[in-house]
Amino acid sequence: MGFFITFEGIEGCGKTTQLRRLAAELRAAGHAVQLTREPGGCAIADSVRALLLDSANSAMAPSTELLLYAAARAQHVAEVIRPALEAGGIVLCDRFSDATLAYQGYGRGLDPGIIAELNRLATGGLAPDVTLLLDLPVEDGLARARERNADSAGPDEGRFEAEALAFHQRVRDGYLQLAAADSRIRVIDARGDQAMVAARIDAALAPLLAARRPA
Asked: What's the rounded Cα separation, in Å, for the pair 174 and 6?
């Protein structure tokens, strides 16, 4: 079985940049790496992503949002994540089931028990080996994310960035509560430049990856 690493954090925390950097380093060292993201990661889940993140869909009900995330995750796990792990590779995923607890649970106020059950159904019980939570004050993260979206020529994916500051603070607080309750989640200080954050990530992962040899 392979090794499953997820990156979590609020909008603009820098996780996508660090995920890609880590993937490049691991591949250079000879590891088979599957780099993926949520929502999305395969054609069906990418179609759901377009619905979830489009700022035109501001009227989406929280329960609809939750069920769409679960549907996208079920397809993603079945089509991409589980096969890559069974092949012995390292899977790096930009957000996973913890994001649903943080955003739809703490952020939206939906029942965490229902969310946990949907996560179990969608993943078939699959959980990350380690989760890196890139933690950043919400004001800093939102400023980065909104600047990024303004500069992007791609599809509109700004629905969550348009939420009020209080929503994002609940999400951050939720992530930190999840981390306090589960040693799988390692909190990484996301302040500072990319090299500083990368060094913190590498230090957290070094003991976990030391025993792994390239396939």
From this structure: 17
pLDDT digits (tens, 9 = 90+) for 82-94: 999 999 999 999 9
Q: Cα(189)–Cα(16) distance, rounded to whole angstroms? A: 15
Fold designation for 3-209: Rossmann fold (3.40.50)
* pLDDT tens profile 9-60: 999 999 999 999 999 999 999 999 999 999 999 999 999 999 999 989 999 9
The contacts found for 209-215 with CB under 8 angstroms, 24 or more apart, are 209/3, 209/26, 212/3, 212/31, 212/90, 214/29, 214/30, 214/31, 214/32, 215/30, 215/31, 215/32, 215/88, 215/89
Which one-letter DSSP state was computed for residue 186? E
139: helix, strand or coil? helix
Q: How far apart are CA 182 and CA 36, in angstroms?
A: 23
